[in-house]
Protein backbone atom coordinates (compact mmCIF):
# COMPACT_ATOMS: atom_id res chain seq x y z
CA UNK A 1 0.00 0.00 0.00
CA UNK A 2 1.31 3.44 -0.92
CA UNK A 3 2.14 5.94 1.81
CA UNK A 4 1.77 9.70 1.65
CA UNK A 5 5.55 10.06 1.90
CA UNK A 6 7.46 6.93 1.01
CA UNK A 7 10.35 5.27 2.79
CA UNK A 8 14.01 5.96 2.01
CA UNK A 9 16.80 3.42 2.46
CA UNK A 10 20.58 3.75 2.62
CA UNK A 11 20.88 7.42 1.68
CA UNK A 12 23.06 10.29 2.91
CA UNK A 13 21.77 12.85 5.38
CA UNK A 14 21.85 15.48 2.64
CA UNK A 15 19.76 13.43 0.24
CA UNK A 16 17.29 12.43 2.97
CA UNK A 17 16.82 16.04 4.04
CA UNK A 18 16.58 17.39 0.49
CA UNK A 19 13.93 14.85 -0.51
CA UNK A 20 11.97 15.31 2.72
CA UNK A 21 12.03 19.10 2.32
CA UNK A 22 10.68 18.76 -1.22
CA UNK A 23 7.90 16.38 -0.14
CA UNK A 24 7.00 18.53 2.86
CA UNK A 25 6.82 21.74 0.82
CA UNK A 26 4.62 20.07 -1.77
CA UNK A 27 2.19 18.64 0.79
CA UNK A 28 1.97 21.95 2.66
CA UNK A 29 1.36 23.94 -0.54
CA UNK A 30 -1.41 21.55 -1.62
CA UNK A 31 -2.92 21.55 1.89
CA UNK A 32 -3.00 25.35 2.01
CA UNK A 33 -4.66 25.37 -1.40
CA UNK A 34 -7.36 22.96 -0.18
CA UNK A 35 -7.99 25.05 2.95
CA UNK A 36 -9.08 27.97 0.79
CA UNK A 37 -12.17 25.94 -0.12
CA UNK A 38 -13.10 24.62 3.32
CA UNK A 39 -16.84 24.11 3.87
CA UNK A 40 -18.73 26.86 5.67
CA UNK A 41 -21.40 24.89 7.49
CA UNK A 42 -21.05 25.67 11.23
CA UNK A 43 -23.39 22.88 12.33
CA UNK A 44 -21.34 20.29 10.41
CA UNK A 45 -17.98 22.09 10.46
CA UNK A 46 -15.94 19.37 12.20
CA UNK A 47 -17.43 16.45 10.31
CA UNK A 48 -16.97 18.26 7.01
CA UNK A 49 -13.33 19.28 7.55
CA UNK A 50 -12.41 15.75 8.64
CA UNK A 51 -13.43 14.61 5.17
CA UNK A 52 -11.67 17.27 3.10
CA UNK A 53 -9.09 15.69 0.80
CA UNK A 54 -6.09 17.35 -0.80
CA UNK A 55 -5.08 16.70 -4.39
CA UNK A 56 -1.45 15.55 -4.65
CA UNK A 57 -1.44 14.65 -8.33
CA UNK A 58 -0.03 16.52 -11.29
CA UNK A 59 3.30 17.72 -12.65
CA UNK A 60 6.06 18.64 -10.23
CA UNK A 61 5.12 15.98 -7.70
CA UNK A 62 8.27 15.01 -5.74
CA UNK A 63 9.39 11.37 -6.01
CA UNK A 64 8.65 10.59 -2.34
CA UNK A 65 4.94 11.38 -2.64
CA UNK A 66 3.16 8.04 -2.85
CA UNK A 67 -0.50 9.04 -3.06
CA UNK A 68 -2.60 11.04 -5.49
CA UNK A 69 -4.71 12.40 -2.62
CA UNK A 70 -4.92 12.39 1.16
CA UNK A 71 -7.25 13.60 3.88
CA UNK A 72 -6.34 17.10 5.06
CA UNK A 73 -6.16 16.14 8.74
CA UNK A 74 -3.82 13.25 7.99
CA UNK A 75 -1.61 15.48 5.85
CA UNK A 76 -1.34 17.97 8.72
CA UNK A 77 -0.26 15.23 11.13
CA UNK A 78 2.32 13.85 8.72
CA UNK A 79 3.68 17.32 7.93
CA UNK A 80 4.25 17.91 11.65
CA UNK A 81 6.04 14.56 11.98
CA UNK A 82 8.24 15.32 8.96
CA UNK A 83 9.20 18.64 10.53
CA UNK A 84 10.42 16.79 13.64
CA UNK A 85 12.17 14.21 11.46
CA UNK A 86 14.02 16.94 9.58
CA UNK A 87 15.15 18.35 12.92
CA UNK A 88 16.36 14.90 13.99
CA UNK A 89 18.29 14.40 10.74
CA UNK A 90 19.90 17.83 11.08
CA UNK A 91 20.94 17.04 14.66
CA UNK A 92 22.39 13.63 13.82
CA UNK A 93 24.18 15.00 10.74
CA UNK A 94 26.37 17.36 12.80
CA UNK A 95 26.80 15.27 15.96
CA UNK A 96 30.34 13.92 16.18
CA UNK A 97 29.10 10.41 17.02
CA UNK A 98 26.71 10.16 14.07
CA UNK A 99 27.72 12.52 11.26
CA UNK A 100 29.59 9.85 9.28
CA UNK A 101 26.64 7.44 9.20
CA UNK A 102 24.11 6.58 6.51
CA UNK A 103 20.36 6.90 6.88
CA UNK A 104 19.63 3.20 6.55
CA UNK A 105 15.87 3.62 7.03
CA UNK A 106 13.66 6.70 7.06
CA UNK A 107 9.91 6.20 7.42
CA UNK A 108 8.28 9.65 7.21
CA UNK A 109 4.65 8.55 7.21
CA UNK A 110 4.48 4.92 8.23
CA UNK A 111 4.06 3.36 11.63
CA UNK A 112 7.05 1.45 12.85
CA UNK A 113 6.90 -2.32 12.84
CA UNK A 114 8.78 -4.90 14.83
CA UNK A 115 11.39 -4.92 12.07
CA UNK A 116 12.07 -1.20 11.87
CA UNK A 117 12.00 2.26 13.39
CA UNK A 118 11.24 5.73 12.09
CA UNK A 119 14.96 6.40 11.65
CA UNK A 120 17.74 3.81 11.56
CA UNK A 121 21.33 5.03 11.22
CA UNK A 122 24.48 3.04 10.71
CA UNK A 123 27.57 2.28 8.69
CA UNK A 124 25.89 -0.58 6.80
CA UNK A 125 22.61 -2.48 7.23
CA UNK A 126 24.60 -4.99 9.28
CA UNK A 127 26.13 -2.27 11.46
CA UNK A 128 23.34 -0.23 13.04
CA UNK A 129 24.45 2.54 15.40
CA UNK A 130 21.29 4.49 16.29
CA UNK A 131 17.52 3.99 16.36
CA UNK A 132 15.04 6.83 16.64
CA UNK A 133 11.29 7.16 16.99
CA UNK A 134 9.94 10.51 15.76
CA UNK A 135 6.69 12.06 16.89
CA UNK A 136 5.01 15.45 17.24
CA UNK A 137 2.92 15.10 20.39
CA UNK A 138 0.90 18.24 21.13
CA UNK A 139 0.47 17.64 24.83
CA UNK A 140 2.26 17.80 28.17
CA UNK A 141 0.97 14.60 29.77
CA UNK A 142 3.46 11.71 29.74
CA UNK A 143 0.70 9.20 29.05
CA UNK A 144 -0.59 11.08 25.98
CA UNK A 145 -1.95 8.53 23.48
CA UNK A 146 0.26 5.86 25.10
CA UNK A 147 2.92 7.21 22.74
CA UNK A 148 5.85 6.70 25.09
CA UNK A 149 4.91 3.06 25.66
CA UNK A 150 4.69 2.48 21.91
CA UNK A 151 8.03 4.15 21.27
CA UNK A 152 9.77 2.23 24.06
CA UNK A 153 8.34 -1.01 22.68
CA UNK A 154 9.50 -0.20 19.14
CA UNK A 155 12.95 0.62 20.48
CA UNK A 156 13.14 -2.63 22.43
CA UNK A 157 13.12 -0.90 25.83
CA UNK A 158 9.90 -2.20 27.37
CA UNK A 159 11.53 -3.95 30.32
CA UNK A 160 15.18 -2.92 29.96
CA UNK A 161 17.44 -0.80 27.80
CA UNK A 162 19.41 -3.34 25.75
CA UNK A 163 23.18 -3.30 26.14
CA UNK A 164 23.81 -4.02 22.45
CA UNK A 165 25.85 -1.02 21.38
CA UNK A 166 22.91 0.73 19.68
CA UNK A 167 21.88 4.17 20.87
CA UNK A 168 18.18 4.86 21.13
CA UNK A 169 16.28 8.14 20.84
CA UNK A 170 12.84 9.65 20.90
CA UNK A 171 12.55 12.88 18.88
CA UNK A 172 9.59 14.99 19.94
CA UNK A 173 8.15 18.36 20.92
CA UNK A 174 9.50 20.36 23.84
CA UNK A 175 6.32 20.04 25.87
CA UNK A 176 6.15 16.27 25.51
CA UNK A 177 9.89 15.86 26.16
CA UNK A 178 9.57 17.88 29.36
CA UNK A 179 6.70 15.65 30.48
CA UNK A 180 8.63 12.45 29.78
CA UNK A 181 12.00 13.44 31.20
CA UNK A 182 11.00 14.75 34.61
CA UNK A 183 13.46 13.39 37.19
CA UNK A 184 10.78 12.62 39.75
CA UNK A 185 8.87 10.61 37.17
CA UNK A 186 11.78 8.58 35.78
CA UNK A 187 13.44 7.95 39.15
CA UNK A 188 11.35 4.81 39.53
CA UNK A 189 11.81 3.60 35.95
CA UNK A 190 14.38 1.23 34.43
CA UNK A 191 15.44 4.02 32.06
CA UNK A 192 16.38 7.68 32.11
CA UNK A 193 16.37 10.33 29.40
CA UNK A 194 19.26 12.53 28.39
CA UNK A 195 17.72 15.70 26.98
CA UNK A 196 19.40 17.12 23.84
CA UNK A 197 17.76 20.25 22.33
CA UNK A 198 18.00 20.76 18.58
CA UNK A 199 19.44 24.25 18.10
CA UNK A 200 17.06 26.83 16.65
CA UNK A 201 13.97 24.64 17.02
CA UNK A 202 11.43 23.51 19.61
CA UNK A 203 12.42 19.88 19.04
CA UNK A 204 14.11 17.76 21.70
CA UNK A 205 16.11 14.58 21.20
CA UNK A 206 15.69 12.28 24.19
CA UNK A 207 18.39 9.62 24.42
CA UNK A 208 17.24 6.59 26.38
CA UNK A 209 19.75 5.19 28.86
CA UNK A 210 19.56 2.39 31.36
CA UNK A 211 19.02 3.72 34.88
CA UNK A 212 22.43 2.38 35.94
CA UNK A 213 24.16 4.24 33.08
CA UNK A 214 22.41 7.59 33.46
CA UNK A 215 24.52 10.63 34.26
Radius of gyration using CA atoms only: 18 Å
Q: Helicity, in percent?
A: 25-40%
Estimated structural class: alpha+beta
Oligomer: single chain
Mean of residue pLDDT values: 91
Distance between the termini: 43 Å
* Largest sheet data: 7 strands, mixed
Q: Strand sequence of the main sheet, in spatial order?
A: 1-4-5-6-7-9-8
Shape category: globular
Low-confidence stretches: none
Counting DSSP E segments of at least 2 residues, the number of strands comes to 9
The helix tally amounts to: 6
Strand content: 15-25%
Q: What is the string of SSEs from the N terminus onward?
A: EHHEEHEEEHEHHEE
Q: Can you walk me through this structure?
A:
This protein is an alpha+beta fold and 215 residues long. Helix content is 33%, strand content 24%. The chain is built from six helices and nine strands; from the N terminus they run E-H-H-E-E-H-E-E-E-H-E-H-H-E-E. Strand 5 (119-124) and strand 6 form a beta hairpin. The termini are far apart. The chain has helices spanning 13-35, 45-50, 72-94, 147-154, 174-180, 183-186; strands at 8-11, 53-55, 69-71, 102-106, 119-124, 127-134, 167-173, 191-197, 203-210. 33% of the residues are buried. The chain is globular. Strands 1-4-5-6-7-9-8 form a seven-stranded mixed beta sheet. Strands 2-3 form a two-stranded antiparallel sheet.
